[in-house]
Design a protein that fits this description.
alpha+beta; Membrane-bound Lytic Murein Transglycosylase D, Chain A; ten-stranded antiparallel β-sheet; 6 helices; LysM peptidoglycan-binding domain-containing protein; metalloendopeptidase activity; M23ase_b-sheet_dom; Dup_hybrid_motif; LysM_dom_sf
Length: about 290
């Protein structure tokens, strides 16, 4: 009787051990991998436009598109024959680089044309054709001077209330510690990142006009771009709330947004200054603290 009881206990003990082993095995095989921290201030993935063309999407402006290409909005306008006030349309395909015709016109073709023109002038020198050519050139120069005068007058009239040629005063867009500085490398940070609290005041760094206010640019969250003159733009990214609209004129120090974390992992202001489309180090322009 005792032997049978021992046999019964032995069988159930073996079964229990097998169940425990299976349970432990399953538990260890499904244990989650340890999470590695990517760092408190990870690099942002700011969307940049590459290629030769771009199809306009809702919310786009010429300034925002040029901003993403790293080129001057005036260059993009020239490539596409767009004149002020630089209106574009949804579905419109824009060239982001000069066409073959534009390149040829400023390259070897232009040189060859100039060379041929010189030879032609030399060949007909001291002939009746030379006189005719001089008269024609004189007339053309007069027309050019007239057109230049008209354009200059129109430009003066159109820019009577425009911004000065240089930005005389820059100020910090917000207060806080710089957590990421500017980098001139291709994949580097295009501006500076300033830490702060959600809802903290974001101000215009200089007088200007808002040329973009929205969230269509990947990686920037809620973004504001201000045009200060024909050469300078400034950008304010990751805002929690935008307080200005496109085409609105703003003054230096005026609140334009509230700091936030849209398009990023933590509360910060990403601030950029662009000179003729190219990113420049904001620290060269902002007053020393």
């Amino acid at each position: 009787m005792k032997t049978g009881f021992n046999t019964y206990i032995g069988k159930h003990f073996v079964a229990l051990v097998a169940v425990l082993a299976l349970t432990v095995g399953c538990s260890s095989s499904h244990k989650p991998a340890p999470v590695k921290s990517a760092g408190k201030y990870s690099k942002q993935n700011y969307g940049q436009l590459k290629g030769t063309t771009y199809k306009v999407k809702p919310g786009d402006t010429l300034f925002a598109i040029a901003f993403r290409t790293g080129k001057s909005y005036k260059d993009i306008a020239v490539y596409n024959g767009i004149k002020p006030p630089y209106t574009i349309f949804v579905g419109q395909t824009l060239r982001l680089t000069p066409s073959t015709y534009n390149v040829a016109g400023t390259g070897s073709k232009a040189k060859n044309t100039a060379s041929a023109s010189k030879k032609q002038t030399k060949k007909v020198k001291n002939t009746a054709s030379t006189k005719k050519q001089k008269n024609s050139k004189k007339t053309l120069e007069q027309q050019k001077r007239k057109e230049y005068a008209e354009k200059t007058n129109n430009k003066k009239a159109n820019t009577a209330n425009a911004f000065p040629a240089k930005v005389s005063t820059w100020q910090w867009p917000t207060s806080g510690k710089i957590i990421q500085g500017f980098s001139s490398s291709e994949q580097g940070n295009k501006g500076i990142d300033i830490a702060g609290k959600r809802g903290q005041v974001v101000k215009a760094a200089a007088n200007g006009k808002v040329v973009y206010a929205g969230s269509a640019l990947r990686g920037y969250g809620k973004l504001i771009i201000i045009k200060h003159n024909e050469d300078y733009l400034s950008a304010y990214a990751h805002n929690n709330k935008l307080l200005v609209k496109e085409q609105q004129t703003v003054k230096v120090g005026q609140q334009i947004a509230e700091m936030g974390s849209t398009g990023t992992t933590n509360v910060r202001l990403h601030f950029e200054i662009r000179y003729r489309g190219k990113s420049v180090n904001p620290m060269r322009y902002l007053p020393k603290k």
